[in-house]
What we know:
single chain, mainly beta, 4 domains, 50 strands, 47% strand, elongated, FlgD/Vpr_Ig-like, FlgD/Vpr Ig-like domain-containing protein
Amino acid sequence: MKYAYIIIYFGILIAQDVPDSFNYIPTNISGVFQGQITINGSPASGSDWVAAFDGDGNCAGASELVFDGGTSYINLSIYGDDGTTSEIDEGINSGEEFYLKLWDSSNDLILEYPDGFDCWVNTNGAPMGGCGGVENVYDFPSVDWIATLSASGGPDGSSYDLTFGFSPNATDGYDDNFDIYAPPSPPPPAFDTALNWGGDRYYRQILSGDGELSEHEYGVSFAFPSDNIINISWQNTGWDEMMSSCVLQDAFGGMMIYVDMLSDSSLILDNPAFTTLNLKVTPNAYALPSIDHPPEISYIPNQTIENGEDFISFDLDDYLTEVDGDEVDWSFDMDGFVPAINISGGERDYDLVFGFNFAATDDYDHGIDMYAPPPPPPPNMDAALGWGGERYYIQILGVDDGEHDLIVHLQYPDDGIIHFNWYSDGWNDLVSSCILQDAFGGEMINVDMLSDSSITLNNPTLTTLFLKVAPNLGETQTRDFIVDVDDENIVTLSYNDGWIGHQMVMFTATDQTGEMLSDIAIVTFTVEEVLSSYDNWMPSHVTLNQNNPNPFNIETRISFNTDISGFVFLEILDFTGREVRTLVLNNLDPGDHSIIWQGENNQGDILPSGVYFYRLSHSQDDRARYLTKKMILIK
């Protein structure tokens, strides 16, 4: 169900049934928060809404979820505070923490994400890099089950809904995310009712679902209307699955009123002496929500040795955390092909990343691939890769023989023009062919991407192109450097006599569940010439710091320190280990040094989202050693 936005002077009033607290005031500055929403591990509904709130409870933006392909996506515009209206707090300030709340429409509950975010930046309506992400999943804890009874009475037909139930995320006291207090009863003869628990009055009181399956007793208080008639009703379908018993009885042990709410569905009270009933509920056994977490790999140190020395063997399991206790399989890869196409039009541009890697499968791989959300409404420009019926910004396939056909989905801007650009240097070494063609077998568009580097489309009927790419299997292994992982996950490294160089190895841990969740770590191994008197220079006299911020969107700072003068080489490497940018190539004096990188390559083109590495060498007498660190660019 889609709701129309009604713009009024003081803000935006969204769907009538959505909570009033989700109303917000739009401003001319905003950033888009993207991700996926689940409730207790299951996808939220497309009719649910998500909203962002500042620490004072002011709503800074709200939107309905987009349900596509079994996944609920967030595409939430979060508005910034308008500095020209100091008397009104419309949104978020840079650095201010914000919180996500979800309106669960089916249960009419507002759920709160347990963690806050302090990453908001103004992107003028574009996705915020490093703040959310289409592939990120945000799981909202909710109730395990709830039930509601309705009570009505009086000449005006006043009605109240009283909700009770259990949740593993609730306590037996007041919980802001679940419970709703009821105000004091109005003076008679006004009709009124409320749940009583712990001495307080509630319209909704959810108790702790801690596995305690004993009977829990609520009070239900009534103030009778002038005609002394109260009608109580409930829809008990499915209640017997949630409760072993549910009884509504008088305060005298059920001598005059005893109703089995699992079999009956209504009750009429006409005796104003019964101002209190007891609601006795015994829950059935139920399992706490089960969420499969991906394995996590901590930092695996790089190794640098001199020619003739041996690398240190290590146990991959020493760097593994598997919170679910799932069985994990390790794999590794030393090279791959991971290029990008930049597609732009109107005020938008997208980087679509494709390729092959031994650590990848032909399905979605956590930590490697990135889903794309559904396209925005026309005439907004949009682009995404299509594979297996899903939309991707990044789709890396497994390495096997033959041609692979990916789809490029397009949506044109107002002017009907879309530009494709790519940087194909080195592609010939890794793929035998890479063709971009129309859906008619190349009758109108047939571009050899290994020789060309751009194309402009001006025909809005061409909304689908095919990207046909075949890997060159003969160039996917480095033979001079050998990695062996035994049955105990012990890594042994060796190299051929006389080999000098460095090799990046990507280790992947994949849990053996239906989801096949995984994590990766990329380690650099370097073999250098014998350095004689220069043996002890690195790394004791040079420090390479982690870039900040990381991940980053617009720019990041890389800093290092050296205690001796010398020739410094600082470069950026892509996911496959190819140099894409040289940042420093100069003699430097001792001291602290830093440089800003804005995500561009040596040609000045902005690089796509993904994992990159920065590598520092500092040489004397033409001899060098390397320090390498990883960073993440998110656009």
